[in-house]
Design a protein that fits this description.
This protein has about 160 residues and is an all-alpha fold. It has one domain. The chain has four helices and no strands. Helix 1 runs antiparallel to helix 2. It is rod-shaped. The two termini are about 60 Å apart.
Length: about 160
């Protein structure tokens, strides 16, 4: 029963760890998707501004500077978003490794407990076998005489009989 309880507890811990891992993975995936959408929108904005400024009189220096600034800002935003995605991916990999290590440790603890229980059961069986050997039939008869022997001893004490 204790082994079954330990197995059940281990399975519950595995399930909890897996659920936690999947939840974290889903959250990080959603954040990553949102960042990708933001990056895509930034690039679309850059492209639309580019077309807009091409249609307008390209002679003005103000318009050229605005376009260059927008492009530079988009590049910086894309670079920042990429770095954030790299950090998130690294964090996700570290979390995965940590969870795998915890799962492996729990597995080893479970196996160790199982081995200790098997050893304890074997010791108990060995002690039971030794006790049976000590109480073999001749020893048992000496410890607990039959009714006929009891009657004979009683008669002998009372001076009756042979």
């Amino acid at each position: 029963n204790e082994l079954k309880n330990l197995e059940y507890d281990l399975n519950e811990q595995k399930r909890t760890l897996n659920q936690s891992f999947e939840k974290t993975l889903t959250e990080l995936h959603l954040k990553q998707e949102n960042r990708k959408k933001g990056l895509k929108n930034a690039f679309l904005n850059v492209i639309s501004f580019g077309y807009y400024f091409k249609k307008i009189d390209s002679d003005t220096k103000k318009q050229e500077n605005a376009l260059l600034n927008t492009l530079q800002n988009a590049r910086e935003e894309a670079s920042i978003t990429y770095k954030e995605l790299e950090k998130a991916n690294t964090g996700l990999l570290e979390t995965k490794k940590r969870l795998e290590n915890e799962l492996t440790q729990e597995k080893y603890k479970h196996e160790d407990t199982k081995k200790r229980l098997e050893i304890a059961i074997q010791k108990g069986e060995n002690q039971q076998n030794k006790a049976k050997e000590l109480l073999n039939p001749t020893d048992y008869a000496k410890l607990y005489p039959t009714n006929a022997q009891n009657t004979h001893l009683r008669d002998k004490r009372q001076g009756i009989g042979r």
